[in-house]
Amino acid sequence: MTTTPPVTPETVFTYGAPRLKFGDGASDEIGFDLSRYGDVRRVLIVTDHGVAATGAPHRIAEGIRAHGIDAHVYDQVHVEPTDASLEAAVAHARATGPWDALVAVGGGSSIDTAKAVDLMLTNPGELMDYVNAPVGLGRAPAEPLKPLVAVPTTTGTGAESTTICVLDVLSLKVKTGISHAALRPSLAVVDPRLTLTQPPGVTAAAGMDILCHAVESYTARWYTSSERKRPEERVPYCGANPISDMWAEQAMRLLAGAFRRAVRHGGDTAARGEMALAATFAGLGFGNAGVHIPHANAYPIAGRVRDFRPKDYPGDEPMVPHGMSVALTAPEAFRFTFAAAPERHLRAARLLAPDREEPSDPAEFLPGVLIDLMRDVGVPNGIGAVGYGPGDVGALAEGTMRQQRLLATAPLPVTEDDVAGIFARSIELW
Question: Global pTM?
């Protein structure tokens, strides 16, 4: 569990973020915002059936048309996108284009689908050319993307702030991603009113994604612990740094007061606003520092699902929602990483549960805080509750080890045996 000090330590960290518009009614101004780009005449709005049923995408389309811009709604996004669903969205956009800009309205699924559509409308090749290695070729976009406005309707993914597009590769039963600074949306429009339609199960799963974004970025390896990179080698995830720490801490403070309230009382507008702000803050942090073991574990948990159907999500096919899949191994992952940065794990626990008495074993503080919260908001009790058993541990660990982009940000080296142990101890958490 020791980390070899770098021969030539890094001295530079990077920070990037989209333009941001936050507050009740912010989504009413998207037409005006698009009109400022000057050459935007046709806009594709990307969403899913459930969000479309709320009327929000069509209201946004009407507001865009009021500014003389043609707007069309595509509502076939697959919740938890797959390579097949992304290719279908790209095919639709190509057949109905050209488009001058895209607007994503929904959760991370809609925003990530819009990122993939934008990438493939503007750059040559196939989708798998751009998927992270070793699953795909990891090619970087050669051409600039079109303007993308991201409008989250869930409080959790932070996709409106990040450079990542997440997808399931069906043939490999693995969840992976496309990662490049060009994928970061041009404008993030966060309107807390749009999150009022989130049912409790979605609020809980998405909220755990906020929490893990904040805690993982806060406990990620410090940026100076890496070997110094050449300018062309720099990637969006550069490790924990003073700016990402600020966003992560603020997100955890907000979660401490708002998370349980938002799940139990969906109409609590103050709690919804605080959760939207926490999601934004966490996205601004982890989108630069990075995430690590819980997110790496989440990809095979979601990608290898058999028959689990979560409450308050579409029931037509099995799925483990992203935020839920991240949470299921988080307590054990943070037990494992505690020794690498004890003070950071303790600080995170105090921010999330300021009134909780600290246990005699400090390594148990953060896992205990997380388990209490998961029980309170209705997250399943470990990976066993979503259909996995001891016989699945090896395959899950193998899937995690494919996520080297994420594991590189972990605060200590991670072997396949380490990951297998985390999965085995996460079959049941309480």
Answer: 0.93
